[in-house]
Amino acid sequence: MTRIGADVKFTGGSSLLGADPLTTLDAVAGLGFEGILVRTVDEAFPELDPGAIGAFARAARDRGMFVQLGVGKVNPYMTAELPRVRDLGGGSYLTGMERLIRLCAEHGWTEAWTATGGFKPYPGLLGFDRFRTDADWADQLAATGDFLLALAPVLREHGVRLNIETHEEITTFEILRLIDLVGADVLGVCLDPANLVVRGEPVGPAVARVAPYTRMTHLRDAILADTGEGLSRFLMPIGQGMTDWPRLLDTLLGARPEIDLVIEGIGGSRAEMSLLPDDPRWWPAHPDMTPSDLEELRSLAARHTADAAAGRRPGLGELRRSGPAGPELRAFLGESLACLRALLDLRNPTLASEGELPTCTYPRS
Predict the structure, then answer these.
(1) Looking at residue 185, which CATH number applies to its domain?
(2) Which DSSP string corresponds to 133-160?
(3) Is the residue at 356 inside a domain?
(4) Prediction pTM value
(5) Is residue 33 part of a domain?
(6) Domain that holds residue 121
(7) Number of other residues whose CB lies within 10 A of the CB of residue 33
(8) What is the pLDDT of residues 231-252, one digit of tens each?
(9) Residues 86-130: tens digit of each pLDDT
């Protein structure tokens, strides 16, 4: 049976759900989840204290919960933003990453999260590492490939695989090229469907491309809205956005029936990110994108405009409002969990025929 966990971000050992990793684990279990993705491990355990990590591992086992870990990012052009990892390596970022990989292996946590960039609060396209003005994206990808090749021996030695998130700066095409370069035995995909549209990729075909390589997930929904200047992506709980979840789950679980699913929540905002296809920098930066891709994304935004006018979806103003981060995160996770369980039950002919499914608002058309 498919297990569902929650992704949790930590800062200085605490999270929005708890003052430390153990109380956070209790909170995740209390919300009904069967596992946790700690992202990242050095933020949850800043000193990498073996006793604290061991106690956390035992507590998860006692609760019957699975554990996944995140490690540092792998784009050398932005690793200076992660001084903790370099500190853990005594000045060497590579050594710090190797230390985190060995920690994963020590506890049997062999599927690890990573990413190739991070969103910045700058206007327009400059918020994405893809559009940095000091380093071309092609150069960043080349350096990322070289760094992953340097990590490959220790990954193979310890049986750990890094799973690159379908993050807002990278496309599925580019992730697959990195896997071809480094090897699927040590490199896979962490699927975040809500980020795909930010890079101009319709969700269905993109999920089909990466499903055979997907070992981890960051599941959440999204809305595409027309802002008058372009399109914007807003995060939503599963079932409350534009994603065709039955199709997504059919594709993903058809390729990876054994996968543990993880939901990534958010609180305090809807994480608006801009798509600006009329900007002259857009198309040269997306050589794999086609005009028909853009047409499909524009049709999703037009659908949102109609739904918002009819009161079926929140309008642009409501999407941009922020609330208290902690309560919103708990609500996001709880609503997403209920809907994902309903979607999984739909795949069970016995439950579906008995009409025992909870209500879920995902689009059925």
Answers:
(1) 3.20.20.150
(2) SSS-HHHHHHHHHHHHHHHHHHHHHHT-
(3) no
(4) 0.96
(5) yes
(6) 4-347
(7) 22
(8) 999 999 999 999 999 999 999 9
(9) 999 999 999 999 999 999 999 999 999 999 999 999 999 999 999
